[in-house]
Design brief:
The chain is of the alpha+beta class and 121 residues long. The protein has one domain (2-110): Alpha-Beta Plaits (2-Layer Sandwich), CATH 3.30.70. The protein has four helices and five strands, in the order βαβαββααβ. Strands 1-5-2-4-3 form a five-stranded mixed sheet. Strand 3 (56-63) and strand 4 form a beta hairpin. It is globular and about 40 Å long. The N and C termini lie far apart (33 Å).
C-alpha cells in the first residue's frame, strides 16, 4: 500500500507524537482499484478488529458511491498516544503490509471543534 500524507503542513508522525490527552478522530482515506475491493475489505476488517482491542473507541467505514474506489474510515480514539501505540506496533505493521500495492492510504488525526449554531465539540 502506498502512503500519501493528507496534509502537507503536518505529518502523521508529528500528529502521533502529540502529548495532548484529548480524544482524537483518525480519518483515513483509501483509494482501492476495483479489482482489489474484496481483498481490501477483508484486510480492513482484520485491522479494525485489532484496533478495537487496542484503544479505538469506535469506527465506521464509508465507501464512495457510483463505482468509486474511495473509502473513508472515521475512528474515534482515546488520544493520540493510544493511537500511536496501536499504529506503530509490530503486529499492526504486519497487518498493514498485506494490502495490495495498488492501494493508497492517507491517514490524518483530527479533533472535534465547536462551531456556534452548527455543532458542539
Amino acid at each position: 500500500m502506498k502512503f500519501v500524507e493528507m496534509d502537507p503542513n503536518t505529518t502523521l508522525a508529528r500528529q502521533l507524537a502529540s502529548t495532548d490527552e484529548s480524544p482524537v478522530i483518525l480519518i483515513n482515506r483509501f483509494h482501492v482499484p476495483g479489482s482489489a475491493d474484496r481483498e481490501f475489505l477483508d484486510h480492513w476488517q482484520e485491522d479494525a478488529q485489532y484496533m478495537l482491542t487496542h484503544g479505538c473507541l469506535s469506527g465506521q467505514l464509508h465507501q464512495g458511491t457510483e463505482g468509486s474506489g474511495s473509502y473513508v474510515n472515521v475512528a474515534v480514539w482515546e488520544n493520540a498516544q493510544t493511537l500511536a501505540r496501536a499504529f506503530t506496533s509490530a503486529e499492526f505493521q504486519q497487518l498493514v503490509n498485506r494490502y495490495p500495492d495498488t492501494c493508497t492510504v492517507s491517514p490524518h488525526v483530527f479533533r472535534r471543534i465547536a462551531v456556534p449554531g452548527v455543532c458542539i465539540a
